[in-house]
Amino acid sequence: MPTKFHTLRSSLPWKLSLGTTVVAVLAHVLPLLVLRDRLPDPLATHWNAAGVADGTGGFPSHLLIGVFTLMVIGLLMPVSTMVKPSPGKTSGEPLLAGLGNGLLVAITGLLLSGTVGQLDAVQALGTTMNVPVLVTGLVLTVIWGALSAHLVRKASPARSAAPDPGTARAVEVASAPMIAPGTRISSSIRGPWWLSLLLVISSAGILVMGCYAVQDSPVALFGLVPAALLLLLVTILLIWGTVVADDDGIRVLCGGPIKFLNVRPGQLSHAEAGEIRPLEYGGWGLRISGAGIALITRAGPGVVVQRTSGADRIYSVATTEDAIAMAAVLNLVASGNEATRS
């Protein structure tokens, strides 16, 4: 059957997203810090459809909310390839790169136009967005979005047609190790340190924003605290875990005895090993997309499990040998299911 893994391509989309995020955050933060003495207190935080400020908030909360918004778009939800193209089709990655980076520029332009529009104002309410800055932001949005899409499209290699199913299956069988019934394969997984650090910082940032936001709107705390706790839980799950495959199927044990993404023996249809990359499934961590439900901790070896019904399951594992052995164990169980049914 055709492989579900694609050859690793350039990490250019991620690099573009990271670079654009850094520039966008600096473009939001530096003017606020440099021009703070010329800005009213409290600051405008909301504008109506005509661009007139109709809501205010504290300086720290405005600064942090802007930073967090840009980081969510640029880092936690980077330009990604959640739409996996069929073999021989063009990738949707260039379009997503253009839209993602263009959105970062557009939001930065809005934030800057609001900041410049409040300079030397007695009060924030009633001030308007600065039109030249707003127009410049929109122009840069189109230019950088189109350029990002062009760069990613140019860097992406052409996709070949799907290999012959019989050939792919023969190669898969030939490379699989001899597995005896009852074999158990365990593979330790670790999330990248930078992602765990980013999630911890983001969680702390949410809590800090909550402390400032509650002064303006006590209700905001009820949304920020659960978000921070959820991020901390995801961080714990990514720090340490184990993928286990045996006669009972495959599952992930994370944070100790927590078990999830369990596929029981009767649900197994086919498994294959290969190289995976986070952006093919929408990023790192527990991902849900058209490709299935995945636990992605890093670019590298992994196992894709097709079920008799429902979406596929995708697992990152420690080594290529672990991935091949797990696929062999699961396919042995699946073949036993087929023999029982027949």
Key descriptive features of the protein:
342 residues, alpha+beta, 5-stranded mixed sheet, 4-stranded antiparallel sheet
Describe what is shown at a glance:
With 342 residues, the chain is an alpha+beta fold. The chain has helices at 12-34, 59-76, 93-117, 131-155, 165-175, 193-216, 221-239, 320-341; strands at 43-47, 53-57, 185-189, 241-246, 249-254, 258-263, 268-276, 285-289, 292-296, 300-307, 313-316.
Estimate the global geometry from the Cα principal axes. elongated
- Given as residue ranges, the uncertain stretches (5+ residues, pLDDT < 50) are 1-10, 79-90, 158-175
- What's the end-to-end separation, in Å? 21 Å
- How much of the sequence lies in strands comes to 15-25%
Q: Mean pLDDT, as a whole number?
A: 75
| Main β-sheet, spatial strand arrangement | 7-10-11-9-8
Provide a descriptive summary of the structure in words.
The chain is α+β, with helices and mostly antiparallel strands and 342 residues long. It folds into 3 domains: 12-155, no CATH class; 165-188 and 240-341, no CATH class; 191-239. Helices cover 49% and strands 19% of the residues. It contains 8 helices and 11 strands. The strands form 3 sheets. Strands 7-10-11-9-8 form a 5-stranded mixed beta sheet. A hairpin with a 3-residue loop joins strand 5 and strand 6 (258-263). Helix 2 runs antiparallel to helix 6, helix 3 (93-117) packs antiparallel against helix 4 and helix 6 packs antiparallel against helix 7 (221-239). The longest helix is centred in the N-terminal third of the chain and has 25 residues, at 93-117. The protein is elongated. The relative contact order is 0.13.
